[in-house]
TrEMBL record:
<dbReference type="InterPro" id="IPR003740">
    <property type="entry name" value="YitT"/>
</dbReference>
<feature type="transmembrane region" description="Helical">
    <location>
        <begin position="107"/>
        <end position="128"/>
    </location>
</feature>
<feature type="region of interest" description="Disordered">
    <location>
        <begin position="199"/>
        <end position="220"/>
    </location>
</feature>
<dbReference type="InterPro" id="IPR051461">
    <property type="entry name" value="UPF0750_membrane"/>
</dbReference>
<feature type="transmembrane region" description="Helical">
    <location>
        <begin position="148"/>
        <end position="171"/>
    </location>
</feature>
<keyword id="KW-0812">Transmembrane</keyword>
<feature type="transmembrane region" description="Helical">
    <location>
        <begin position="77"/>
        <end position="95"/>
    </location>
</feature>
<keyword id="KW-1133">Transmembrane helix</keyword>
<dbReference type="GO" id="GO:0005886">
    <property type="term" value="C:plasma membrane"/>
</dbReference>
<protein>
    <submittedName>
        <fullName>YitT family protein</fullName>
    </submittedName>
</protein>
<feature type="compositionally biased region" description="Polar residues">
    <location>
        <begin position="209"/>
        <end position="220"/>
    </location>
</feature>
<keyword id="KW-0472">Membrane</keyword>
<dbReference type="Pfam" id="PF02588">
    <property type="entry name" value="YitT_membrane"/>
</dbReference>
<feature type="transmembrane region" description="Helical">
    <location>
        <begin position="7"/>
        <end position="28"/>
    </location>
</feature>
<keyword id="KW-1003">Cell membrane</keyword>
<feature type="transmembrane region" description="Helical">
    <location>
        <begin position="48"/>
        <end position="70"/>
    </location>
</feature>
Length: 220
């Protein structure tokens, strides 16, 4: 019973992290024309290019990687990642449909980049801290790093650079530079949050710490 309660608490933290991510991506990134790296960046790109909902696009990109994650990270990690991804998609969709909040920071883009980096990094770090991942791009980075011999951090940076390069066709240079600033801040906040001291409630602290270490970006 105690273990079940602890796991419910773990899932609550994972869902909360997904909520923070969805809030930031919709109210800060999308509303102020900031893109993002990884699969979320591709989803935002698809929204601007084809008017596709990021909620649907993110799930479509994630599902193939989930199948691979079962063999790479195990059943528990896969379950946590699926929960986080579905929660993110549901929250984002709800924000798109019903949120009355409009955060217009077009005249304060440094603040928009700062808030984006802090909130997205915090949300992703919470999910990682409690034994999940924010989507299939995390899993893809792990697989690529094993295949090509580069560190996880280097792979993340390369994937983000690719997505941001594609975003140049609809984002002006100014917004792209602020997006790079936001991604840089987020990468640091992810590391700090995922590696924060404290007890992990899932009873598998070693796995969570291993995930946190594997996602640590190199210092420059």
């Amino acid at each position: 019973m105690r273990r079940a309660v602890a796991y419910v608490r773990q899932l609550c933290w994972i869902v909360f992290g997904a909520f923070v991510l969805a809030f930031a991506y919709y109210h800060i990134n999308a509303q102020n024309h900031l893109s993002e790296g990884g699969f979320v960046g591709l989803a935002l790109l698809a929204k601007y290019a084809f008017d596709l909902s990021p909620a649907i696009t993110t799930l479509a990109l994630d599902i193939p990687l989930f199948l691979v994650a079962f063999h790479v990270k195990g059943r528990q990690f896969l379950a946590n990642t699926i929960i986080a991804s579905i929660a993110f998609s549901v929250f984002y969709d709800l924000f798109e449909r019903f949120s009355p909040l409009h955060v217009d920071l077009s005249g304060l883009m440094p603040l928009a980049a700062l808030l984006s980096g802090l909130l997205t990094g915090w949300g992703a770090g919470i999910v990682l801290r409690y034994g999940g991942a924010t989507g299939g791009d995390d899993i893809l980075a792990v697989l690529l790093s094993r295949q090509i011999g580069l560190s996880i951090g280097t792979v993340f940076l390369l994937l983000d650079a690719l997505v941001l390069s594609l975003s140049l066709w609809y984002l002006p240079i100014r917004e792209t530079l602020y997006t790079i600033l936001a991604v840089t801040i987020a990468s640091r906040v992810v590391n700090w949050t995922a590696a924060a001291s404290g007890r992990v409630d899932d009873g598998d602290e070693s796995e969570t710490k291993s995930i946190s270490r594997s996602l640590t970006l190199p210092d420059h």
